[in-house]
Amino acid sequence: MSHLLIRSPKHCANKQGFNVNKFNKKLFYAFSTFFISILSLVFLIWLILRPSKPEFFLREADIYQLNLSGPHLLNSSIQITLVSKNPNKKVGVFYDQLQVYASYKGQQITIDESLPPFYQGHEDSNLLSASLMGTGLPVAPSFGYEVGRDQTAGKLVLSLKVNGRLRWKVGTWVSGRYRFNVDCVTIMAFGPNVGSGPLSSKQGSQCSTTV
């Protein structure tokens, strides 16, 4: 007598569900492998082309106004010219945000000035100019004393700060945003023997950059 094998509907459903689950797992593993491979490739390219941080130089700084309008309120007017350089041969830089201000003895003496965003190609340089102003800015009670002491010493040390965000560009790939900070220091002749006109520094100085 022959035996007829009859599968119950429940048994068929279980087998079909097992095949679907197995297919989904294979699809997930294939997608994961592909995604990890892409990330590894991008990371490898990043290691090979690891970008050097941008370089900034203070080309010129002129102080037209720096005086107290009240006991602890400052009016200031400063003009600066910076040079921005991308030292990378294969990496471009998008500057999405740039904020510039001046400080003296650790005190901010102008409001933040925004510079327009721009793209900097491989080994390119750009000239950046900013007019920094301050009206009635609060300063420490010792501000006037510090300025007077520097005038007696014959020199004034001014700091220029740049804060912003940038993105790296390698081929068609563009990175996420990174914060960067630039600190420039210049020393100006300052004293009773200095002629009329703005306090100026045209000797130029390299700035420190952190990303």
TrEMBL record:
Q: Where in the cell is it found?
A: Membrane
Highest taxon above the source species: Eukaryota
Write down the InterPro entries for this protein, in alphabetical order.
LEA_2 (IPR004864), NDR1-like (IPR044839)
The alphabetized UniProt keywords are:
Membrane, Transmembrane, Transmembrane helix
State if Nucleotide-binding is listed as a keyword. no
The answer on whether this UniProt entry bears the keyword Nucleotide-binding reads: no
The residues covered by the Late embryogenesis abundant protein LEA-2 subgroup domain are 84-184
Tell me the membrane topology, using the record's own terms.
Answer: Single-pass membrane protein
Please give the chief subcellular localization of this protein: membrane
Q: Name one GO cellular component term.
A: plasmodesma
Q: Name one GO biological process term.
A: defense response to other organism
Q: Which residues cross the membrane?
A: 27-49
Name the UniProt record assigns to this protein: Late embryogenesis abundant protein
Q: Which organism is it from?
A: Macleaya cordata (Five-seeded plume-poppy)
